[in-house]
Design goal:
Elements (H helix, E strand, L loop, with lengths): L1 E3 L2 H13 L4 E6 L5 H13 L2 E6 L19 H11 L3 E3 L3 H4 L18 H4 L3 H16 L3 E5 L3 H13 L5 E5 L19 H7 L1 H14 L4 H15 L3 E8 L15 E8 L2 E8 L6
Parallel strand pairs: 1-4, 2-3, 2-5, 3-4, 5-6
Antiparallel strand pairs: 7-8, 8-9
This protein binds adenosine monophosphate.
Length: 283
């Protein structure tokens, strides 16, 4: 697997593959690779001739008070994992390759971004939208795969590629979880042992609430109860725990067969997000 740092080198590879008639899948990541990332790569390998992974901790999607400096970075072990997976190319640019000092353009998504993480992290989706647009234009892949773990992000990216006529298929992939249900995330390394145990309650409460709603319980009351349970379980804060429409992200008050629960919670300094389709879950 070759590691390239510049857009010019990336394009040398992609043009060669395109001339040879090969299809290309792109997996954008911020590194600190885990089984969630690796599942996206596997999915892409089943659909494309060539798979490119990208690693770029995008400064534009962190607020000034967020964990950009502390975000886990371990490129050497990431490269090892990508080689073992048989990835064709890693594009790992440094910030100056992505953003000129006088960069003046931002991709702003106006719908789907008036709720959930857009509210708790203002400017976050401008950063995501801009970097993903750039990566897609740089690589021009046939498809790009994103995790449902970041469900709002997945919808935003589908919307922006449609609106900007970027010729790429955006595919969503299911959330990979630890044995106790915690969604795998690069930020889980920040959890202390007791917090790691509490963290699994998010999925437990999501499942319980989804089942209650699917069985006909009142949506708002079920979410309110879930928020109380989260606080009782030891979470230090809740950005949101809400039921929303799976495509429009509008709040739902009645469950009519297309809905999802969305949660963002704090355990000390660590923010965890997760989401789950509303249906009955039996253990
Ligand atoms: P990140 O490195 O956190 O920006 O994530 C890169 C990609 O991996 C995004 O498309 C995420 O949605 C996806 N991803 C992160 N965690 C998981 C997970 N547990 N299961 C599946 N995909 C994930």
């Amino acid at each position: 697997m070759e590691v390239v740092r510049t857009i010019a080198e990336l394009r040398q590879h992609t043009s060669r593959w395109r001339i040879a008639g090969q299809t290309i899948g792109l997996i954008p990541t911020m590194g600190a690779l885990h089984n969630g990332h690796l599942s996206l790569i596997k999915l892409a390998q089943g659909k494309c001739d060539r798979v490119i992974a990208t690693i770029f901790v995008n400064p534009r999607q962190f607020l000034p008070n967020e964990d950009f400096e502390e975000y886990p970075r371990n490129e050497e072990s990431d490269i090892q994992k990508l080689i073992e997976m048989g990835v064709d190319l890693l594009f790992a640019p440094k910030a100056p390759e992505m953003y000129q000092p006088d960069a003046s353009t931002t991709v702003v998504i106006s719908k789907l971004t008036d709720c959930l993480c857009a509210t708790s992290r203002p400017g976050f989706f401008d950063g995501v939208g801009t970097v993903v647009t750039k990566l897609l234009i740089q690589a021009l892949p046939d498809l790009a795969i994103f995790g449902e773990k970041d469900y709002q992000q997945l919808l935003v990216i589908k919307r922006l590629t449609r609106d900007l006529d970027i010729p790429v298929e955006i595919i969503g992939a299911p959330t990979i979880r630890e044995a106790d249900g915690l969604a795998v995330s690069s930020r889980n390394v920040f959890l202390s042992q007791p917090n790691r145990e509490t963290a699994s309650k998010v999925f437990e409460i999501l499942k319980k609430t989804a089942t209650a709603i699917a069985l006909g319980n009142d949506v708002l009351a079920a979410c309110k109860e879930a928020r109380t349970e989260l606080i009782l379980a030891g979470f230090s804060g809740i950005d949101y725990f809400e039921a929303r429409h799976s495509e429009t992200l509008e709040l739902i008050q009645n469950f009519e067969n297309s809905g999802r629960l969305f949660a963002a919670v704090w355990l000390g300094p660590t923010r965890l997000i997760d989401n789950l389709e509303i249906k009955e879950y039996r253990d």
